[in-house]
Write a structure and sequence with these properties.
The complex is a heterodimer of chains A (375) and B (372). By secondary structure, chain A is of the alpha/beta class. Chain A has helices spanning 40-48, 62-69, 102-107, 110-116, 134-143, 198-210, 218-228, 248-260, 266-273, and strands at 3-10, 31-32, 36-37, 53-57, 83-87, 91-92, 95-96, 118-125, 128-130, 148-154, 164-168, 174-179, 188-197, 233-237, 242-244, 285-287, 292-294, 296-298, 303-304, 307-309, 312-313, 318-319, 324-326, 329-330, 335-336, 341-343, 345-347, 352-353, 358-359, 367-369, 372-373. Chain A folds into two domains: 3-249, Spore Coat Polysaccharide Biosynthesis Protein SpsA, Chain A; 281-373, 3 Solenoid (UDP N-Acetylglucosamine Acyltransferase, domain 1), CATH 2.160.10. In chain A, the strands form seven sheets. In chain A, strands 1, 4, 5, 8, 10, 11, 12, 13 and 14 form a nine-stranded mixed sheet that branches. A six-stranded parallel sheet of chain A has the order 16-19-22-25-28-31, with no helix packed on it. A five-stranded parallel sheet of chain A has the order 17-20-23-26-29, with no helix packed on it. Chain B is α/β, with parallel strands linked by helices. At the A-B interface, strand 16, strand 17, strand 18 and strand 21 of A face helix 10, strand 14, strand 15 and strand 16 of B.
């Protein structure tokens, strides 16, 4: 049966800049917002866009991620016409190879895409925080008879040099790319979200695979080649909350955004209405007699006997009486002992902060605490 | 275990006052996150019983809404079979609506399955009985029925009308009488039994004078006329009986003591429930929360003490909630005061409204009520 659109989520990256958070899990599986994992965002977006076939490409530390994706049930992507397929590098008749780049990862799975016979392919990253319907973008892609439509977001001009910048004409047709330009000529940044017409993509990837000089990357190789070949590249502008959580600081910031986003704001709507995730079989969340908790988000299974302010507390976190947590993100299963002060930090899954330990980084930095911290 | 069928029997459920006017005790919300029946269903799950059904007496909607497909309590989703069993004749004629008739109407147990043992549990008793061990003991003793009991010291105030087994030195049940509340220290039946297949068949197919109108009655009769060999199994562990509105409040509030809660939640015996994909609870800058259970989806910006706040409850700035249970979806507006109350689902407590009752007799606000 042919499908209108298949989504492919690139979830294989190591996320080196997340340090110990990604020691044993791929970046898309990193915990977020007290209850979620980062990949819940693109998967929920797919579900909410009526996309029923999703491939998740994984490579680095895939066990936790693969287990989490499972049948796709957590996002409702396991219904009668749905398919959630995890795609790791594999041995084939041609031999075996790791994914060499984003484009190569898709190329290595063209057989999967062929089997699904899609009209269009949506390429997504597994590490962005945003809530978006891809339906509008697809409609525009079809309407413009585009070969590829790139999702872009307006960024402040002074930050534009950190992004891949899109320059487009009045008709939204892309005329030029600037990769992290010193002097950006537009403030439209590429979000790394693409809809390709599959026939076009298929040919491009096969050609690219033969090109020994290519780094097999969508941003660096495929899209510039399309532009050079005068293909139809269009830009779709996304307006709303979007954050790439590539570093400890940006991950912390996105978590804090959850607390600070007022009811009715874009991010708050995403969390409250349409973000699907795993439901842990936790005990109820308990707040103790001497606890204090303000401006925070707390998941089920947490036990809070101490003081918590402007923080995210995940399931099965235990905060002892006399412990203080400020402006921090505490990941599942972590334990904060009495007398400890944790400020401006991310405390890793199952980490243990001992009695009286002070975690108070300076100069506005965010500290990552992993394992046992006894002094 | 394929050799066992579990039955969750809702026919023995006591009423919880106004809480059970339009729902079953089984599906009544508990600790903000559970339905009361979750604990009995989890006993099936934790004992590795994937074939189980629910004997529903009434309020079918309320039961279905909570258990949904029942997959929340199943380990192997392919092998196990789970059904909601209703007694169609009992809907036409209420005098026929009893657990034995329900089993008789739904006698797939005897056709579709060759399970040799039927394990019956009620919904209104919270325990952590390892049913696998009870079945083992049942097989070893060669009994027709094995009855699970526990020892209590507050028999005057709880487990009213429940069966008190008298045991001989070998643990065989030699008489069964109903607890009329005159003795504090008693052995009491948990309405939990293992019944051998052929025995169950005999009970549900009995005719005339031999026909009992409930499983409890069938056991009393069987012990009385020596037609059933009923053995006992002693359970020692957390157990509470929901048998009144007051019991519901007492059991909820006593679990606010964390040491009590550990007896229920720190035993490795997971309580499974159907979940709702709700975001974590959110606390505002004016929140002041002490000694309280809070469920996901709650948004709190007021003061809450010694209370239970269920899913999607909103407590606005300036509101004060003390010693109360607030059920799903209720909104407590700014500066409202609630003390010693159970507020049912989807109620709306307006700005500045006051609901107060003496601590010994919590008041009740019905589902969807707008309190001005």
């Amino acid at each position: 049966m042919s499908k209108e659109i298949v989504a492919m989520i690139l979830a294989g990256g190591k996320g080196t800049r997340l340090e110990a958070l990604t020691k044993k899990v791929a970046k898309p599986a990193v915990s977020f917002g007290g209850r979620y994992r980062i990949i819940d965002f693109p998967l929920s977006n797919c579900a909410n866009s009526g996309i029923t076939t999703v491939g998740v490409l994984m490579q680095y530390e895939s066990i936790v991620l693969d287990q989490y994706i499972g049948s796709g049930e957590k996002w409702g992507l396991n219904g009668v016409r749905a398919l959630t397929q995890t795609l790791s590098p594999r041995q084939t008749e041609q031999g075996m190879a790791w994914y060499k780049g984003t484009a190569d990862a898709i190329y290595e799975n063209l057989d999967f895409l062929d089997s699904q016979d899609p009209e269009y392919v949506l390429i997504l990253s597994g590490d962005h925080i945003y809530g978006m319907s891809y339906r509008d973008m697809l409609n525009k892609h079809i309407e413009k008879k585009a070969d590829v439509t790139i999702c872009s977001i307006g960024v402040p001009l002074e930050e534009a040099s950190r992004f891949g910048i899109i320059i487009k004409d009045d008709n939204d047709r892309i005329v030029e790319f600037q990769e992290k330009p010193a002097k950006p000529r537009s403030n439209f940044a590429s979000m790394g979200i693409y809809i390709f017409t599959y026939k076009v993509l298929r040919k491009l990837l096969i050609d690219d695979a033969k090109n020994e000089k290519s780094s097999h990357d969508f941003g660096k190789d495929i899209l510039p080649k399309m532009l050079a070949d005068k293909k139809r590249l269009f830009s779709y502008e996304y307006k709303g909350y979007w954050k790439d959580v590539g570093t400890i600081a940006s991950l912390h910031e996105a978590n804090m955004d959850l607390i600070d986003s007022p009811a009715g704001s874009d991010l708050s709507k995403v969390i409250n209405n349409s973000l699907y995730s795993e439901d842990t079989n936790s005990a109820p969340q308990y707040i103790g007699s001497n606890a204090s908790i303000k401006k925070s988000i707390v998941n089920q299974g947490a036990v809070i006997l101490g003081s918590v302010e402007h923080s995210i507390i995940s399931n099965e976190v235990y905060i002892e009486e006399g412990a203080t947590v400020i402006n921090s993100v505490i990941l599942p299963g972590a334990h904060i002992s009495t007398g400890a002060l944790v400020k401006d930090a991310i405390v890793n899954n199952d980490a243990f902060v001992g009695e009286g330990v002070k975690v108070t980084p300076e100069n506005g930095e965010i500290e990552l605490v992993s394992g046992r911290r006894m002094e | 275990m394929k050799n066992i069928i579990g039955l969750l029997n809702l026919y023995d459920s006591p009423e919880l006052g106004p809480l059970t006017e339009n729902r079953t005790l089984a599906s009544t919300s508990f600790l903000g996150r559970y339905a009361i029946m979750d604990f009995a269903l989890s006993n099936f799950t934790n004992s590795g019983i994937d074939d189980f059904s629910i004997l529903v007496k009434n309020n079918f909607r309320s039961v279905t809404k909570h258990v949904h497909t029942m997959k929340a309590w199943v380990s192997n989703t392919k092998i196990g079979k789970q059904y909601l069993l209703i007694n169609a004749n009992g809907i036409r004629d209420k005098s026929l609506n009893n657990d034995i008739n329900n089993i008789k109407t739904n006698d797939w147990i005897f056709y579709e399955s060759d399970a040799q043992y039927i394990v019956v549990q009620p919904a209104h008793i919270i325990s952590q009985v390892n049913l696998r061990k009870v079945v083992k003991s049942h097989i070893a003793s060669g009994a027709d029925v094995t009855l699970v009991y526990t020892k209590i010291t507050n028999g005057k105030s709880t487990f009213k009308k429940h069966l008190i087994p008298e045991l001989d030195e070998n643990g065989k049940v030699i008489s069964l009488r109903k607890n009329n509340g005159d003795v504090a220290r008693i052995n009491v039946s948990l309405d939990t039994y293992v019944i051998s297949r052929e025995v169950m068949k005999k009970i549900v197919n009995a005719r005339g004078n031999n026909r009992a109108t409930s499983l409890r009655q069938a056991l009393i009769k069987g012990v009385e006329d020596f037609s059933l060999n009923v053995q006992s199994y002693y359970y020692e562990g957390y157990v509470r009986c929901f048998d009144s509105f007051k019991a519901f409040c007492d059991i909820s509030f006593e679990l606010l003591n964390y040491e009590n809660a550990r007896q229920l939640f720190d035993t490795g015996w997971t309580a499974y429930t159907n979940t709702h994909n709700t975001p974590p609870a959110k606390y505002g800058e004016n929140a002041c929360v002490k000694n309280t259970y809070v469920a996901n989806g709650a948004v709190i910006d007021g003061t809450v003490e010694n209370s239970i706040v269920s899913r999607n409850v909103v407590i606005e700035k300036g509101a004060v909630v003390k010693n109360s249970i607030i059920l799903t979806g209720t909104k407590v507006s700014e500066c409202a005061i609630i003390e010693n109350a159970v507020i049912d689902k989807w109620a709306f407590i307006s700005t500045g409204a006051t609901i107060k009752a003496p601590k010994s007799r919590p008041t009740y606000v019905r589902q969807g009520k707008i309190v001005k």
